[in-house]
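Lab manual, section 2.4: Encoding a predicted structure.

Procedure: take the sequence of the chain (78 residues), apply the prediction step described in section 2.3, and record the output as structure tokens. A sample record is shown.
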Amino acid sequence: MITVFVVADCPHCAALIADLERRHVGYRCVDLRRESSRLEELKRLTWERRLPVVVDHERCSVGFCGGYSTWLELGLEG
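Recorded output:
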């Protein structure tokens, strides 16, 4: 199962979630607005300050279909 780090009002995050659900891919969702303490974990996983982030074991993928939102745009601590 993969873990996805998202923010609810990010259009790229919403598109990723919709794609995963359409393809019936199992995932755990971490909404960083609800679980802001997980930002530190994400900082350890990737130096990128963009969302969405997909974590599959030790591999991280940032963005979805070439699009992403920065932490600054989303009002997250960077």
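Check your result against the sample. The CA atoms of residues 22 and 60 lie 21 Å apart.
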